[in-house]
Inverse folding.
């Protein structure tokens, strides 16, 4: 920082939108007068590899003029002129914002019938039992995406899955083959007997469940935990467009996979 320049000057220029390097370069040109890029780099400690980008940005907003020659040199505009220029730029910026808000978005305000209210929810509290209830309430189909397949997961929810078979609910499970580990063969035999299990070699984006192709829960965790805690951020999605995307994604992933084979994947 250059001596005798108050901190509020730096703060004001940064508030306008200048980066730290741009602020230092502009103030150095004000105090030192015409300078080359190398001289500015040495004075401001701005890396020489960055100084030209900094000066080009200042030139683009009209705060710095280029003096032709070898080497090229740079001169700051008078602070009073820059102040007027900055004011004009700010007024134009807020005019564009006002136009966007008033002319483009205001007419759309209040059209609740055009979109579903609160299409994405964060589940909290007793998340585990809420998941079980959603499984139990399935009437037609349950699709499960497992980025990090867990035998504990299958064991934990197997009774709920089994109940669905009595209602002829179609259960399909897509598993990330990169994370697939078979240790308890009986677990995989049981789940394969009540659900279609497909293994894909491309990464699945997240652990999730799609209920009757109407609602979806997403577990945004680094790995699937059976006792889901609130901080694991479990989302419930009901928005139609997102659900349609999930259905399309499922079709794509399912078609790219192959049927799970215990013989092939068992240790």
């Amino acid at each position: 920082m250059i001596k005798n320049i108050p901190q509020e000057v730096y703060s004001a220029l940064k508030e306008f939108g200048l980066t730290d390097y741009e602020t230092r370069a502009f103030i150095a040109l004000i105090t030192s007068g015409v300078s080359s890029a190398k001289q500015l780099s040495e004075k401001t400690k701005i890396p020489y590899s960055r100084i030209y980008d900094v000066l080009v940005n200042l030139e683009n907003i009209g705060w710095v003029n280029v003096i032709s020659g070898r080497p090229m040199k740079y001169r700051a505009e008078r602070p009073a002129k820059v102040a007027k220029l900055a004011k004009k730029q700010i007024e134009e910026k807020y005019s564009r914002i006002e136009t966007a808000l008033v002319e483009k978005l205001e007419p759309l305000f209040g059209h609740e019938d055009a979109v579903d209210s609160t299409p994405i929810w964060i589940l909290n509290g007793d998340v585990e039992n809420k998941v079980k209830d959603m499984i139990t309430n399935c009437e037609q189909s349950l699709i499960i995406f497992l980025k990090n397949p867990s035998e504990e997961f299958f064991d934990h929810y197997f009774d709920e899955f089994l109940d669905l078979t009595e209602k002829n609910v179609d259960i399909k499970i897509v598993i990330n083959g990169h994370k697939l580990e078979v240790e308890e063969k009986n677990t995989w035999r049981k789940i394969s007997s009540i659900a279609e299990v497909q293994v894909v070699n491309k990464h699945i984006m997240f652990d999730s469940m799609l209920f009757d192709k109407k609602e979806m829960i997403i577990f945004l965790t680094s790995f699937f935990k059976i006792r889901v805690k609130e901080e694991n951020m479990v989302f419930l999605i009901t928005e139609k467009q997102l659900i349609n995307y999930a259905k399309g994604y499922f079709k794509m992933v399912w078609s790219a996979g192959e049927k799970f084979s215990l013989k092939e994947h068992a240790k």
About this structure: The first helix runs from residue 7 to 16.
